[in-house]
Specification:
CATH architecture: Sandwich
Number of domains: 1
Number of strands: 8
Strand order of the largest sheet: 1-6-5-4
Distance between the termini: 49 Å
Helix content: under 10%
Largest sheet: 4 strands, mixed
Oligomer: single chain
Number of helices: 1
Shape: elongated
C-alpha cells in the first residue's frame, strides 16, 4: 500500500480545530473504503495513508473523459508528544475524523539547568 505515494494535500483536504480538551482533524476521503485507510503515529507525527485502486476490469469502456483519481495518498501532521492510545478515529460518509486528546505535559514550562 505504501508504494508510489502522492504526498500532497490536494487529495486529502482537511479542517483542524480545537474543542475543549481535544484537537480534531476532519479529512475528506470520498470513495475510499475503511480498510484502505491507515493511520500511524511515530515521533510526534500522525501519518494518514489512503489508497484507491482503479477498476481494471472495465477496460473495455470507451471513456470520453475520466476525472476520478486513483492511487496512494499520504498526509502528515505534527501533533507533538501525545499518548497515542488517546487518539481515536472514525470514518463515516467519506470523512475521516481523528480526535486527539491534548497533552497536559506539553503546556508545562520547563527550566533547563546550564552546566
Amino acid at each position: 500500500m505504501l508504494e508510489n505515494i502522492i504526498d500532497n494535500d490536494t487529495y486529502m483536504r482537511c479542517d483542524i480545530f480545537d474543542y475543549n480538551d481535544k484537537y480534531y482533524i476532519e479529512i475528506d476521503l470520498p470513495g475510499f473504503k475503511r480498510e484502505n485507510i491507515l493511520l500511524e503515529f511515530s515521533r510526534g507525527y500522525l501519518n494518514i495513508f489512503a489508497s484507491k485502486k482503479d477498476n481494471k476490469e472495465i477496460d473495455e469502456k470507451n471513456y470520453i473523459k475520466r476525472e476520478r483519481t486513483f492511487g496512494n495518498y499520504k498526509r502528515e501532521f505534527y501533533v507533538g508528544n501525545v499518548d497515542y492510545s488517546k487518539i481515536n478515529a472514525k470514518y463515516k460518509d467519506g470523512v475521516l475524523t481523528i480526535e486527539i486528546s491534548k497533552s497536559k505535559s506539553d503546556n508545562d514550562k520547563k527550566t533547563i539547568e546550564i552546566k
